[in-house]
Amino acid sequence: MVSFEAFDEAHNFEKQPLESGFPDYILQSVLPWIADVFKDRDFTHYYGHELILENDKLILPMSRQLRRRFSNQWSGFQKEITKDISTLTNVLSYILQNHAYYNDGIKLESILEVTGSAYSAEIISTKEDEFRTSYKMKLIHRVSEVVVEQAKAVLTNSELMQQAWDEHYSLNSDDEKTVTRATDALTGLLRDRYFPEEKRPMFGKIIEKIRKDPKKYPMPAEAIYERKNLLDLMLQFSKIRGNHKTGNGRAPTHEEAGFVLHFAIMLFQLMSVKSK
Question: What are phi and psi of 133, to 5 degrees?
Fold first, then answer.
């Protein structure tokens, strides 16, 4: 494993923001990775000096899924997929999902991580039985390992929170679904804690009930914040849910969706801690 300790601050990349594009120093590793995957799957052959890509097994299925024409010549294919970030990220995700093996995914993730890319090759393992493990891979937006580790327990125990996380950090993120899934998860959390008999809980009504009776419905660690302000903030979430655009409702921004998601994770964590 190659290591590097920066001589000066100009090359101390740990303090720099993630790279959301694909500059040459990333492309010079990513493009050979794509070519290697195609070669390993026997999707290539040479015609003279030109590397030709398999049409029926590779180019045509990819063109149908991504709804655009791709050249079956490697030189043309490279030019087409690097014209814009959306095309390249979706091509990489398509290859991860359909043609890459586990070791290919590990190699791509290593390339993206070392170069400070804002994208990550996500690898999810599923144990099929005692002897077999299957892997699902795709390209996602990179999330700090610390943040992932902190959220892991919540995401493991709540399917809705996992869905909200996936909607927020996938390449084609959906902010309305992120907010909707997260608030639905919060509704269930608050119902289970304060109103276990409630059959059809509604987020706004539950918040109002909690707000009106502080003694009966204490919030966790409320001595360190203004309880009313916190509950008022949670009520605002209802106004940016995808199915609540009437009246003062509107679609959330990506930043707002991220706030709702991570606020929900925090509340799940607080409510999982038992009082001493």
Answer: -130, 130
pTM here is 0.71
SS3 content of the chain, % helix, strand, coil (to 5): 60, 10, 30
Structure tokens at 15: 């303090």
CA distance 166 to 169: 5
Q: Is the pLDDT of residue 248 over 70?
A: no
| Residue 88 near residue 22, CB atoms below 8 Å | yes
CA 240 to CA 9: how far, in whole Å?
Answer: 42
Radius of gyration (Cα) for the chain, nearest Å? 23
Tell me the domain boundaries of the chain: 17-142, 151-269
151-160: long-range contacts at Cβ-Cβ below 8 A with a sequence spacing of 24 or more? 151/262, 151/265, 153/269, 153/272, 154/265, 154/268, 154/269, 154/272, 158/185, 158/188, 158/189, 158/268, 160/184, 160/185, 160/188
Please check the confidence at residue 276 and state whether its pLDDT lies above 60.
Answer: no
Q: Are 116 and 22 a contacting pair, CB within 8 Å?
A: no
Beta strand segments in 128-217, E:
133-141
Q: Which residue has the higher pLDDT, 268 or 223?
A: 268
Confirm if 120 and 109 have CB atoms less than 8 A apart: yes
